[in-house]
């Protein structure tokens, strides 16, 4: 990944994690906690594709596993967000630009439900049965509702920042300079177009002489 991608993704993931742990988790809403980190991963995956979404999801999930108060095995949420980032990245729109809000909202709902199911499944494999006592159906419903309500305020803004970081002015300037140098080299340095340019100049000079002679003859007739 590019440095500007890594810097932006790391900064926004840390900000999202701090807000989620210090604010959203303390609201004590019924059911699941609004997953701001998941929405951040979804937004980056919709711009950077499946590879970028997978890497960002793994890093964001690992930070979530290590952030207090962590009550589960480290790497569990990293696996979940890695898979979610990869799958969401497969549905990346052209050039990372959204044409309507219906598709991203459906992706958000699917990511919320899929992450909850995958997290509960991984927990069942390691012997964590907390989801059964809380109620898996309630967790799925509340996770989808909370993330869907929060998505319009998070996903479009992060996608806009990601697209802006994707445009590298330095790379575009270097490519433009390289194109100018190559075109100048082809026109002057190689001699491939010198013959054709000389022929064109000769034709133009002959036409100018003929036109000048016609004007002079016309003056003499007067």
UniProtKB/TrEMBL annotation:
Q: Tell where it localizes.
A: Cell membrane
Q: Which residue ranges run through the membrane? A: 6-24, 36-62, 74-91, 103-122, 134-155
Q: Does the keyword Membrane apply?
A: yes
The membrane topology term of the UniProt record is: Multi-pass membrane protein
Superkingdom of this protein's organism = Bacteria
Record keyword Transmembrane helix present: yes
Q: What keywords appear on the UniProt entry?
A: Cell membrane, Cell shape, Membrane, Transmembrane, Transmembrane helix
Family, per entry: Belongs to the MreD family.
Know the name of this protein?
Rod shape-determining protein MreD
